[in-house]
Amino acid sequence: MKTYLMLAAAVLTAGLSGAAAAQDAAAPSCELHVFPTLEGQAMSSGLLAGFGVIGAVADAAGHKNRNVRDAEYLKDALGPNFQVDSLKTIDLVKELKLQPSTIVYETPIADRKITTKATNRLSASSAPCYVELLVTQNFFKKTAIYGRSLNNRFILKDFRDGKAQAELVKGRGGNGLSHFPPKTEDEKPAAELDLRDAFVKNFLEFSKGVSAK
Predict the structure, then answer these.
(1) Which run of H or of E encompasses 119?
(2) CB count, 10 Å around CB of 199?
(3) Helices 52-62 and 64-77 sit at what angle, rounded to 10 degrees?
């Protein structure tokens, strides 16, 4: 009986060890750290913008208050939480052509010089297989000829293969908007879906320029 119990314990221990090893083997060894942005910019222009310098100046003055209002609204509507929720609707690792990776969503960094120019890691992670994705611009544009659109800029910082300084891939995406910004409270749900759809499409345009390794 004692021998049987010892054998059973050994089998159980081996089984647990095997399960733990299998779990460790299945766990991604790479990390993807995602930094949303706090930015929001807006520019509207009318027909006067096409009539030389004087027309452009007059047009800019006429749209100054609207641009400020739209920029503030965009910062709120397309804030960090919205960006994260939007990116969670797609397979980031697949679209960026990375190895299986654990995704870590980070707190936005307010200093644009850091997000756009720094080549060092922006998190405390020391993982050897490490990549960062930064959203660096949210830009709403409205013109008399082309209508409304959302433009986004992204940076992929690749530290894989033991790099101390990142290999950078910068790019952008731009897509039209049909419902954003909303004119009434009733239009807000449609405007939010419109904004999310454009943001995701812009990221997918950017990710097409990322090469697999």
Answers:
(1) none
(2) 22
(3) 60
> 59 CB contacts (<8 Å, ≥6 apart)?
45, 46, 47, 48, 49
pLDDT digits (tens, 9 = 90+) for 106-147: 999 999 899 999 999 999 999 999 999 999 999 998 886 778
Which residue, chain included where needed, has tokens 């990322």?
Answer: 210
3-state class of 90 per DSSP? coil
Q: Kind and range of the H or E element at 138?
A: strand 129-143
Mapping DSSP to helix (H, G, I), strand (E, B) and coil, where does residue 114 land?
helix
- State whether residue 124 is helix, strand or coil: coil
Q: What are phi and psi of 147, to 5 degrees?
A: 80, -150
CA distance 136 to 152: 7
pLDDT of residue 44: 65
pTM of the model: 0.78
Check whether 11 has a pLDDT greater than 80: no
CA angle 113, 116, 121 (to 5 degrees): 95
What separation in angstroms does the CA of 102 have from each of 33, 85, 89? 8, 16, 16
The token pair at 149 is: 């659109």
Tokens linked to 188? 């807000």
Q: Of 180, 156, 151, 202, nearest to 76 (Cα)?
A: 180
